[in-house]
Amino acid sequence: MMTITFADLIPLQPLLIATLTVVLVMSAVAVKRNYVIAYRITLLGLILAGLASFYLMPNANYQVTPLLIINAYSLFFTGLVCLTAAGICVFCFPYFLDLQDDKEEYFLLLGLATIGSIVLVSSNHFVSMIIGIETISMSLYGMVAYPVQNGRYAAHALEAAVKYLVLSAAASGFMLFGMALIYAQTGTLEFTSLTHSLSNDGIGESFSITAFILPVFRVSV
To answer: Into how many domains does the chain fold?
Structure first.
């Protein structure tokens, strides 16, 4: 059993900061709804997570768990995701400011989608990959459905969210089936082990090609 020490948590700072941001926004909404406070907490947390990613980038190469690997590649895209989410936060603030609706949860969903993206770009295993993808998808269902109570836009937003939900659920089934085929072919779901297996055995068989195409279809959705 792998033991995670405090030193192992240092490379996970961006993920931990994003998670703490979501918890703080959730707590703030539970205590008292305030759109500006939720916005400021989210924006500050995302910027800090992005800056932490770029700070950790030099000489970063950590195998934190069998599921996650933290290196310069993952940290660069983590920072890119966090700063992009911060930009979305800034642009959506004036749009929701005058909207008569429950607005604070949008920032909560944005934070959860960011967490899923961080897990996805740092994944070293199909399990962490599907956790990241589904976290993003579950958050996007709600974000696509906004505004949820405004009569002028709610019907179209809910229709789009339901369509995305159905398509995403079908694509998840394809991905899980592809993962099962990959495991049956190689005996592993870890990306580094798959690299060695493919370099030795190749993927000439149509069975193997199909197995790898199915998860890619889900990621594209």
So the answer is: 2
Whether the ω angle into residue 14 lies within 30 degrees of 0, i.e. cis, is no
For residue 99, which phi and psi values (nearest 5 degrees)?
A: -85, 130
Q: Of 88, 111, 141, at which residue does a domain stop?
A: 141
b/e burial code for range 13-25 (CB count within 10 A of at least 16 → b) = bbbbbbbebbebb
Residue identified by tokens 């983590």 is 78
Q: What is the pLDDT of residue 212?
A: 56
71: left (phi over 0), alpha (psi -120 to 50) or beta: beta
Q: How far apart are the first and last CA of the chain?
A: 35
Residue 41 in tokens: 């907490």
According to DSSP, the residues that pair with 71 across neighbouring strands are 61
pLDDT tens for each residue of 65-82: 888 888 888 999 999 999
Does this model's pTM top 0.70? My answer is yes
